[in-house]
Design a protein that fits this description.
By secondary structure, the chain is an alpha+beta fold. The protein has 3 domains: 3-74, Multidrug-efflux Transporter Regulator, Chain: A, Domain 2 (Orthogonal Bundle), CATH 1.10.1660; 114-236, DNA Polymerase III, Chain A, domain 2 (Roll); 243-343, DNA Polymerase III, subunit A, domain 2 (DNA Polymerase III, Chain A, domain 2, Roll), CATH 3.10.150.10. The chain has 10 helices and 19 strands. The strands form 4 sheets. The protein has a 9-stranded antiparallel β-sheet with strand order 8-5-6-7-19-18-17-12-15. A hairpin with a 2-residue loop joins strand 9 and strand 10 (213-218). Helix 4 runs antiparallel to helix 5, helix 6 (123-134) runs antiparallel to helix 7 (189-200) and helix 9 runs antiparallel to helix 10. The protein is flat, with a radius of gyration of 29 Å. The termini are far apart.
Length: 352
């Protein structure tokens, strides 16, 4: 190739965003060899056609991708490129999460603050409750507390609560023994998700509080540490206390309602309740069999709000307490009321 069509290493470095030393390193690694090397001076030249590869190499290294993976990505087809990048990102995030959790453990141990026993719970029951209630959390950079689980411990009950502002889920558990103290705090949801597997495999879980976290003491397994969130949790008790009385109550088979929601094509769904049953979406001619008490109502929801509220209910039937088209709806199990979800409707739903 004529030299007039080649760029010296300095010019190529400026156009690609790589330093000259990085280009020499990648040439030695076989990732980006010069188009030509002057046999007398050893000076390296690059072509304009090499810029896309150089730019891609730089971008991949900016996300801390190992050289072996970079080489695989640069030589892969479009489908494999996406897969390899996603696998790398997943690995980096997993490693970062492991480092964060380990840092929390180190800080807790270096602080030398003993945990204060709070309560004890049955491991499988606690794990199930955490998974159910965490469905109502949200990742919100402006309100990190929405990603947490509120723990409220009283001598005879432990209540777990979460809210994403459109849904509020709460479950009350009976402790394995009367709680040692009254205590409340908001625990990091991601930490609890990571600990659920170990919690489920332990018959009894002791809960100990420290100034910045909780220890979940697991007999014969590694104890789990979860951070506390400092932000103030929304005043859910005031919201629950201010709910008006339900005017219509519906009991419907959980699987039938879930099936109808899964088949619904839109992002918003209307529940129409009459004395004949409950219709989902635009199918009033074929209502779901339901027990209805109270006047007919039509309430609209975002599907992503309603579906998790129904799916986490315990038992074959769900009970819906309706207060009006613009009022929160309470959803709970018809036969076991220890998991309760309050879902906010939307003002304008799909057409009837």
């Amino acid at each position: 190739m004529p030299h007039s069509e080649l760029m010296p290493i300095g010019a190529f470095a400026r156009r690609s965003g790589l330093t000259s030393s990085a280009l020499r390193f990648y040439a030695d690694c076989g990732l980006l060899s010069p188009a030509e090397v002057d046999p007398d001076s050893g000076y390296r030249y690059y072509s304009a056609g090499q810029l896309p590869r150089a730019t891609g190499l730089r971008r991949l290294r900016e996300i801390a991708m190992p050289l072996a993976t970079v080489e695989a990505v640069l030589g892969a087809g479009p489908d494999d490129v996406s897969r390899l990048i996603d696998e790398h990102v997943g690995k980096v995030l997993g490693e970062a999460e492991a480092v964060r959790r380990q840092a929390a453990l180190i800080k807790s141990s270096l602080a030398a603050v003993p945990g204060l026993p709070v309560t004890a719970l049955k491991g499988p029951v606690l794990a199930g409750a955490i998974e159910q209630v965490l469905t109502a959390t949200a990742r919100d950079g402006g309100m990190p507390v929405l990603g947490g689980l509120r723990w409220e411990v009283a001598p005879e009950a432990v209540t777990l609560t979460a809210t994403d502002r459109y849904r509020l889920s709460s479950r009350t558990l009976v402790p394995a023994e009367p709680a040692a103290m009254t205590w409340a705090a908001t625990v990091d949801g991601d930490d609890l998700r990571a600990a659920v597997g170990e919690i489920r495999r332990c018959a009894r879980v002791g809960v100990e509080a420290t100034p910045h976290g909780i220890w979940l003491r697991l007999a014969s397994r590694a104890d789990q540490h979860c951070r506390l969130l400092a932000e103030e949790f929304p005043d859910h008790r005031l919201m629950l206390a201010s709910l008006p009385e339900a005017i219509t109550r519906v009991t419907v088979a959980k699987d039938a309602l879930l099936g109808a929601l899964e088949e619904h094509p839109g992002e918003r769904v209307a529940l129409s309740v009459t004395e004949h049953g409950m219709s989902v979406g635009t199918h009033p001619a074929s209502p779901l069999p339901a027990s209805v008490t109270g006047p007919a109502l039509r309430v609209c929801f975002e599907l992503i709000t309603l579906y998790p509220a129904v799916s986490t209910a315990i038992g074959p039937d769900v009970l819906l307490d309706l207060r009006g088209p613009d009022q929160p709806v309470t959803i709970r199990s018809a036969d076991r009321g220890d998991l309760t979800t309050v879902a906010m409707p939307v003002k304008h739903g799909p057409p009837a």
